[in-house]
Amino acid sequence: MPGHGEEPKAEKIPGNGEVFYTSSLATFKRIAVDMATCKTLALGDVCEQVGKCPEPVCAGDTMYNDTKVESLCGMCVLAGEQSEAGASGGGLGCFALDAMVGVEGRGAVAVADIAAGDKIVATGPDGSPEYSRVVFTHAHVDAMPTVRLAVAGDVMELTEAHQVPVYTEECGSSYCAAAKLVKARQVAAGDRLYVSDGERSTVQTVLTTSAGTAHVKYIVTEAGNLVVNGVVASVFSTMAKHLETLPFYTLDSLFPGIFEWSPVKAALYSVLESPALQRAELVVDMVASSKTAVMMPQRAAAFGFAAGSV
Phi and psi for 60 in degrees, rounded to 5? Predict the structure, then answer.
């Protein structure tokens, strides 16, 4: 350990990588290991222990009103999604780049050309069409396994775990916010999805489903949904649902339009190309530490974050 006033020094340990001191007063060392090992060391069995609580901590209807707990639940849920995706050959992502969405003032535009700040066609809580601002987008580098859902004379192609609203009795023949969400790969021919013609939403039957592979883009809107090739879809690419998008909405509420800034987009690019759990950990960590990195610490503190606490 460096003495008082000395600069921190890195130490080489044969076969174990490099050890870094965090400061001259640090009492802990961090060994440079691969991310998979880091995740194991960081989370340990915390997800398993949370799952043993008498009250379901991470259930949507009993979620503790604590941002740190929500972030932890998001990591645990995404960890499960990552394992399941790996086992099934699936992956995280969103919509095929050649899918079409309606953009205010521009008409039909390919998903590949959608950017943060655009206003695209979405569906209101009562099923009526509306334009919703795009909060965040990310186009993945690698092609991913997809599901093609043929409905209403068109095909919506999206990643396997992406959440799709299906016909729900509470909503009836028009989409509503209470519509049940299921994974795209669980949708079968004969199931009913909600579609929008620009004036209203209706129910249409899925004619066929098929597997594919495509380059995809992740899109988050203020409305929490969007209309892709005429089909109403959620913004959620995993079962984590709102926990998955929480970091993006939090940062955007603190600093509106932050994801339109080139430096921020560049910084997030490598983060979002990492596996799912790494994405959740690093983005949530960025939110947690934002109050010390920007000039609005009071507003960030209101969200209950402590820098470096994730």
Answer: -60, -35
Q: How many angstroms separate the CA atoms of 177 and 154, rounded?
A: 23
State the pLDDT at residue 215: 94
Q: Please identify every stretch of the chain with a pLDDT value under 50, giving residue numbers as ranges.
A: 1-31, 82-91, 276-310
The pLDDT assigned to 91 comes to: 45
CATH code of the region 95-234: 2.170.16.10
SS3 content of the chain, % helix, strand, coil (to 5): 30, 30, 40
In this prediction, residue 236 carries a pLDDT of 92
Whether 119 and 133 have beta carbons less than 8 Å apart is answered as yes
Contact 112, 139 (CB under 8 A): yes
The pTM of the full predicted model, rounded to 2 decimals, is 0.63
Please tell me the predicted confidence (pLDDT) of residue 142. Answer: 84
Neighbours of 58 (CB within 10 A): 20
The pLDDT of residue 145 is: 92
Q: Which pair of structure tokens corresponds to residue 155? A: 């095909």
Residue type present at position 118: D
Query: Is residue 158 a contact partner of residue 184, using CB atoms and an 8 Å limit?
Result: yes
Residue 190: how many CB atoms within 10 A of its CB? 10
Q: Are 175 and 123 in contact (CB under 8 A)?
A: yes
Under 8 Å between Cβ of 20 and 7: no
Relative to beta strand 163-166, strand 144-151 is unpaired
Please report, for the chain, the start and end positions of each structural domain, with discontinuous segments joined by +.
Answer: 95-234
